[in-house]
Structures are given as structure tokens and as C-alpha cells.
Design brief:
Helix content of chain A: 10-25%
Order of helices and strands of chain A: EHEEEEHE
Shape of chain A: globular
Structural class of chain A: alpha+beta
Strand content of chain A: 35-45%
Strand order of the largest sheet of chain A: 2-3-4-5-1-6
Distance between the termini of chain A: 25 Å
Oligomer: homodimer
């Protein structure tokens, strides 16, 4: 499927998972490669369409990254020195897919504690185009 | 400055602006080029460090994009057919810079209405590295 022909979800009904993962393994969340593979695997497993990613390794520690999806995005920022990872998953598509993404990431990282806030976005303005 | 030597903010004190812009000009928010230049200009004006971006044009309309910053990220998704744009700005750096970014984007897009939620993240776990 060519990217140009991807069609966005017709309704801007957003589902945003704002998560904080505490007590993560510092080595894992300090590895750009580990996190890249983790996100790639989670996107594939959830059946989402990856439009491209950027990941960045900080010195002396910390990784930040995002993956743009046809159905929206994932972003994360890590503080390995605190075992702490901030994760955002926003979708205007299937909410179950977003939940599966989150579950997969949590399952792999095995944090001691997870804080999740769900924010719903969207509205019913008349179409202008 | 080489990317490799960027140092992440030492404290994971996050400031997340979750914004929704209603009644935007449909042509502007349907233009990948316009939005790319807008975000690039806003990042520069706010004095933030751009680590890379991805922007994607949907058919028949809609743009989605992401800019990774040393101080965190900006993401947006547009529904030109509703004049609607979802914007997230997350920073673990200077909150004033994030506010300036948001102000610049709103000033340029001149939406009829803006909804902003501020979410604070971060915690004080003992360092593990």
C-alpha cells in the first residue's frame, strides 16, 4: 500500500493514553536499540501502520523517540537513572489497538508501577471541506 | 553542537500541553509544507533544539507530524474537513519555551477556539544509575 493513498480516520475521535512507567530496568530503557525493537514489535503486533520513527540516544543516559502511525502516534522519553519512562499513545483509530500497544510495552518492560491517564479528544463541528 | 553530546534535562519533571484548536483555516491545516514551516519556525523562535521531524500528508485531506526536541516533543494531527487540529507539546525543560511554542502556533493559525489542558509529570524516585 502506498503511503499517499492512506486515508485518515474520518472522525477526529481521539483516544490518548498518557502513561508513566516506574521502576523499569535501567539498562533496557537506556538502550535505543532495545526500545526501537520494542516499539516496532508492539506496532506490528497491534496491526498498526508505521509511517516512520525517530529515536535519539542521550549522553550520559536517556532515550527519546516517536513513531508516527497512520492511526496517530507513540512517543516516549526515558530517564534510566530514575528507572522512569513517559509514554504517550494517541490514536484516532481503534482503541483496542492502542490498548494492545500499551499492554505489549508494559509486558516487556515489567515496570514496578504504571500510572495511566486516558484523555478523550474530538468534536462534532460541521465539515468545512 | 553534536547530537551525541546533548544532555537530557537531569530531572524528569514534565510539562505537557494538550491542545485542541477549532475553526482553523482548512487550507493551512491541510498543507504539510505550511505546517512544517510553522513548527520549524516556532521551534526556532522558542530557542529549542530540533532533533528531527516527520510529517505526513493524508489523502484526501489531513496532515500528521512530529518533531523530536532535545527538551522533548511536539506532535499534531489535523482534520481540515473539520477545521480541527490536535496539538501536544511535552517538555522536560523550560516551561516558558513550551508556552512560547504554543503561543506562536496559535497566533499563526488563528483558530476560533482553543482548548488547553496542562498535565504535569515526573517524580522523585532515587537514582538507579
Amino acid at each position: 500500500m502506498k503511503r499517499e493513498f492512506l486515508v485518515q480516520n474520518p472522525r477526529p475521535d481521539g483516544y490518548h493514553l498518557m502513561m508513566e512507567l516506574y521502576g523499569c530496568d535501567s539498562e533496557k530503557i537506556n538502550s535505543r536499540r532495545y526500545l526501537h525493537n520494542l516499539i516496532k514489535g508492539a506496532v506490528k503486533k497491534a496491526g498498526l501502520t508505521n509511517l516512520g520513527s525517530r529515536f535519539h540516544q542521550f549522553q550520559p543516559h536517556g532515550v527519546t523517540g516517536f513513531t508516527l502511525l497512520a492511526q496517530s502516534h507513540i512517543s516516549f522519553h526515558t530517564w534510566p537513572e530514575f528507572g522512569y519512562l513517559v509514554l504517550d499513545i494517541f490514536t484516532c483509530g481503534d482503541q483496542d489497538q492502542a490498548d494492545r500497544l500499551a499492554d505489549h510495552i508494559v509486558e516487556k518492560l515489567q515496570p514496578a508501577r504504571v500510572s495511566t491517564n486516558v484523555v478523550r479528544k474530538g468534536f462534532k463541528y460541521p465539515r468545512t471541506l
